[in-house]
Amino acid sequence: MTNSFHPPQRTLMGPGPSDVSPRVLEALGRPTIGHLDPAFVDLMDDIKGLLQYAFQTENALTLPISAPGSAGMEAAFVNLVSPGDKVIVCQNGVFGGRMKENVERCGATAIMVEDTWGTAIDLNKVKEAFTANPDAKVLAFVHAETSTGVESDAKALCALARENNALTIVDAVTSLGGIPLLVDAWGADAVYSGSQKCLSCVPGISPVTFSQRAVDTINARNTKVQSWFLDMQLVMGYWGGNSKRAYHHTAPVNAMYALHESLVALKEEGLENAWARHSKHHAALVAGLEAMGLDMLVAKEHRLPQLNLVAIPDGVDDAAVRSALLADYNLEIGAGLGDLAGKAWRIGLMGHAASKQNVLLCLSALDNILSAANAPIQSGRAVAAANAIYGV
């Protein structure tokens, strides 16, 4: 006999999903209505406006795709990239590699600009790539690289693309709601994100926005978009602004309630306040980790406040520490990926999880577990160092 599933209560401080606030979870349980119900159509309009606020854009083509951030990524590429195009792809972590895969599946050529994992995208390398490939149609890059905790200069990269008459595809999965992301001011063309990071919503939705330049490119295509589900010309028939909606797919109605609630919470807090909150708790976490004797792997000027890469001390068993955190404290942190597997922990401070309570829990739990394992740390100092940042 199969029993109902009752998940444990965790504190999620990994690379995502992040903690979901009680008000968002409550929204999930509201009565389901039809995806073409007039009340749901009104909600769609409200979600669009709230997403425009979150992205800081007036783009008409702004909507939540009914699938996770990976689908948002694919939507950007399949709509803007045609067979035979050249796309400059910046890779300084896992997700730049996924961009390359998308370019090639579109029948286009990926011109790779590669940087060491844990460092920001080198603007000079991008300039050189444009000089060598003046016919490049798109520049694709990750604003906040989830695998390394690095922020790259999205404003400067978008400016470089504009100077070279290229469109930009920007991965903002981990940046939206956590650090400044100014789509219109920076001139970004196609930007995608995810619901489960700094928005603190349940996983499974990908907010996207396309500039008018991007829309014009989509409309000028002479080949079909290779994905029917992600063809923006079709999707906009459902998410468009007029009262008559063309059926495209059955939206995940209750998940959209949750997204709406998370966006309402972001608007209530205010974007600038949300960015400042992430920064404050990041400063406290870093102070505590460094007081413990742990090293941060990303240079201070390129660190993401919402995703912190911490070097694992010599002789410490990565998996054993993470297992103990989960078993003894119901606390999840992330493992390193790719080149950083076994070398780093990824500690998230995203959305609802960016709180003093979580910072102090994480520091005290790490201190206890590492001390018990006789790791080379300075025990008993982390919480006090964090509290000094908080002014306690």
Automatic annotation (TrEMBL):
Cofactor entry: pyridoxal 5'-phosphate
Stretches assigned to coiled coil: none
Keyword Endoplasmic reticulum included in the entry's annotation: no
Biological processes, Gene Ontology terms: glycine biosynthetic process, by transamination of glyoxylate
SUPFAM superfamilies referenced in this protein's UniProt entry, alphabetically: PLP-dependent transferases (SSF53383)
Record: residues binding substrate: 346
Aminotransferase class V domain sequence ranges: 35-336
N6-(pyridoxal phosphate)lysine found at: 197
Matching Gene3D superfamilies: Aspartate Aminotransferase, domain 1, Type I PLP-dependent aspartate aminotransferase-like (Major domain)
Any GO molecular function: L-serine-pyruvate transaminase activity
Keyword Transferase set for record: yes
Span list, region Disordered: 1-20
Family to which this protein belongs: Belongs to the class-V pyridoxal-phosphate-dependent aminotransferase family.
Protein name in UniProt: Alanine--glyoxylate aminotransferase
Organism: Kordiimonas sediminis
Lineage: Bacteria, Pseudomonadati, Pseudomonadota, Alphaproteobacteria, Kordiimonadales
